Description:
Helix content of chain A is 42%, strand content 19%. With 234 residues, chain A is an alpha/beta fold. Residues 229-234 of chain A have low confidence and may be disordered. Chain B has one domain (13-110). In chain B, 21% of the residues lie in helices and 28% in strands. Chain B contains 2 helices and 5 strands. A 5-stranded antiparallel sheet of chain B has the order 3-2-1-5-4.
Amino acid sequence: xxxYILKTLNEERRARRAAVLVTDLGDGRDRIVxxxxxxxxxxxxxxANAFRTGNSRSxxxxxxTFFLNAHLPRPRLVVIGAVHIxxxxxxMARIAGYPVEIIDPRTAFATPERFPDVAxxxxxxxxxxxxxxLDSYTALAAVTHDPKIDDxxxxxxxxxxxxxxxxxxSRKTHAxxxxxxxxxxxxxxxxxxxxxxxxxDIGAASPAEIAVxxxxxxxxxxxxxxxxxxxxxx
Amino acid sequence: MDESNYLDEAxxxxxxxxxxxxDGKDVAIATVVETWGSAPRPVGSHLVIDAEGNFHGSxxxxxxxxxxxxxxxxxxxxxxxxxxxxxxxxxxxxxVGLSCGGRIKVYVERLG
Lengths: 234, 112
């Protein structure tokens, strides 16, 4: 391995950016492909697959054997609101491989008793997200119903290109939210990325069932990353 | 608490390899490039080795690391990468193998 390649790869991993290390197993030459870089042909298709699935594997292309090592940042889920839904969502999402962080400035809600074993911030999203910025491998679900708490975080999630952005509330509630986000400077195409009403439509009727719907929608968004963007270009 | 959002700098093999390199050590990187059956570590897993035989990471959960380290020291000396293959230990021969019944292919290369 080229020392410069190793250094670059580690920089990408530290910054929570996806990269695929491509090694020619015949001559040992390697290179780094970043998400969005264009690589032609069968090798390009295999690399795109590695980014989407996170699976590393050997591939035959152009008469050579390449090893593709996919380095994807660990996806995480930031939940705005220490509410009932979050209490069910936190353990389920962790089991599914999406560690959860919960942010809610209302100290009566954000208590360790209600959220054992969860990273919990009893602070305003503005303050937490300044310290721990959102990124494209982070999902954000806003479930407080309170614009004072949700809106800033939603705008931040759109700007950071979070792979999933969901917001609790009826269509009517969301229509008002759209107006406020436009006033905050969000673009209409950005706002269209918000999943609202939140969660896959499974007829969820309880907080725990809504949590299932949100988790399923998060997983769907993660596994189809890049596919919607390609569709938009075509 | 699960701190896996960020890299575990103290245990991450590729971070350790970079640190060794900066300390002027000779380093080899071993990578699982293929698995069949019930392999203990997934494709893409790393073991990093220095010329003194110090190592970090894992390619098999302990079954074949000893053999990989020995080969890696040769690779550091020669600079020529090697592909190693490990399967179930042969009953008649005393050799390393995977007790789980899987097979793995490990690519060993020198850093630099």
